[in-house]
Amino acid sequence: MRGIGPFLKDAWQLTRPYFFTSEERWSARGLLVAIIAMNLTLVGLNVVLSFWRREFYNALQDKDWKAFLELLFFYRSTPSGLMPGFCEVAVVFIMLFVYSVYVNQLLQIRWRNWMTRKFLNEWLADRAYYHISLTVDRAAIGTDNPDQRIAEDLRDFTDTTLTLSLGLLSNLVSMFSFVSILWGLSGSIELFGIPIPGYMVWVALAYAALGTWLTHLVGRPLALLSFKQQRVEADFRYALVRIRENMENIALYRGEEEEAVTLRERFGAVIANWRQIMTRTKLLNSLTSGYDQVAGIFPIVVAAPRYFAGSMQLGGLMQTAGSFGQVQGSMSWFVASYASLAQWRAIVERLATFHRAIVKAREETNGGFEPTASADGNLRLNDVTMSLPDGTKLLDGVDLMLTPGHSIVMTGRSGSGKTTLFRVLAGIWPFGSGQVQIPPRSFFLPQRPYVPLGTLRHVITYPNPVDAFSQEEMVQVLRDVGLPQLCDRLDHDDNWPQRLSMGEQQRLGFARALLAKPDWIFLDEATASVDPEAETELYQMLKQRLPNATLVSIAHRISVASFHERRLNMERKAGKSGTLVASAVIPEAAGD
């Protein structure tokens, strides 16, 4: 965990944009001012109730029935001024409390909405989400479980930040409001012959200081434990999600026992962390519970000698005890809020490290490839150096030009860099340098097509909107790629990543290409999960339906080569950068 200074700086950098630079800053400030005003009014009503209790207990002691009724339901003139009835004060108090909570929740959801959109935009911009997964730089630490950081940590940050900051403000105002009351009620005592005015204030201060020091001493490890808890909980949940996403593969491998071992290990980390939190919380609760119990009786014990000596009435004693409780409680805000502060610190650390990882990933993008549109329809690589995240060069200073109308098959041994070159052409690979020009109407088909959540109509048209194509076009492409059984299920919302086999998902990738009608189609082993006969049918279908499209295929199968006029082989020896070698399309070579 970072020091208190850097931590507070991180918290301020997370908080500041919404209230000072966002488009919602004025409404946010207005809501915040309204919440503060209502909370301060509640503090003022507590001051009024302090004097009300004094008069009420004096009325009980004097058995004054008229004063009793007036203080309950109407108003009464007292030496302290006109005292409202309890019912009137209670109604105002309840209304203020209800609406302060309501406005607080309104500000929370608006703030969370703004921060969520901001984090999502930064995470998705420049493909930072993808580049984060590739980086090996330690500066990008803290990128595990981005889903939890965006969904849960942002929710908890806005909630806890408002709760703690408003609680601190209310307690400060309450402390200063009741210190003057307690000072006047305390009188003076002599200690070793030295008169000490307002001694109850000093007792409250000493009591709170001792409790704060002990609480920090006992509870300090909770911040790190809370940080670790967020991570191990998310790791366990992610392992469960992985099983849900790969149920069939696990079943085919008979991998249930191995998965059970992994889940037990990850849940074991949750249990171990929880036991550490339990132990530390037990110690902290022992301290704070005892502290609170003693605080309830302590002021009465300290003030009792003056009451029994007849120098104050019962109302004065109760007001002294109540004022002491308010002052001591306000001074002990750190004690009462320690667990929340520890959790808040863990949340801030997780969000701050996540934000730094996004910034780092976007910086990496600036040093990578950003393909530009080719003006003449040719594909060009100019002085392209392609590297791995650790700096290993796969290609060094390569120049290449591919012309439309001549389909190319790219071959090479596994690990030579074919798929990485596919990513370079797509503009998503951040490691390397050089100029890449690709035709503007290009379409990329990866080996594992992405299947989003939603209806089958959305799955087929992705990433275009569902109304970008007609019903007839979607039905036709499903038939063309050999999926006629899905034609009547376009509006079904199903778990399509699990419902469809990998071969069917690859067929859907071809359906998307048919809908897009691109000039260039880049395929990275896009038929690896279908049988050779289906592979032939899919390539023939592309040739027939998109006769003007240029195909660039990465493949290991010999059969794929027959659908291309040219061949590029990636040759690379271990520890050295590779080269692209043009050669004839022959079956024996295509399968290297």
Word description of this protein:
β13 and β14 (579-583) form a beta hairpin. Helix content is 62%, strand content 12%. The protein is elongated. The chain contains 20 helices and 14 strands. The strands form 4 sheets. The protein has a 6-stranded mixed beta sheet with strand order 10-11-12-8-13-14, sandwiched between helices. With 592 residues, it is of the alpha/beta class. α1 packs across α2, α1 packs across α13 and α2 (25-62) packs antiparallel against α11. The protein has helices at 4-20, 25-62, 65-73, 86-124, 128-134, 146-186, 199-219, 222-245, 247-253, 256-308, 314-331, 333-336, 338-366, 418-426, 456-461, 471-480, 496-499, 502-516, 532-545, 587-590, and strands at residues 75-78, 81-84, 188-191, 194-197, 372-373, 379-387, 393-402, 408-412, 432-438, 442-445, 520-524, 550-554, 566-571, 579-583.
Strand content: 5-15%
Largest sheet at a glance?
6 strands, mixed
- Please give the radius of gyration in angstroms: 35 Å
Oligomeric composition of the shown chains: single chain
Total number of strands: 14
Sheet with the most strands: spatial strand order: 10-11-12-8-13-14
Residue windows where pLDDT falls under 50 for at least 5 positions:
136-140, 587-592
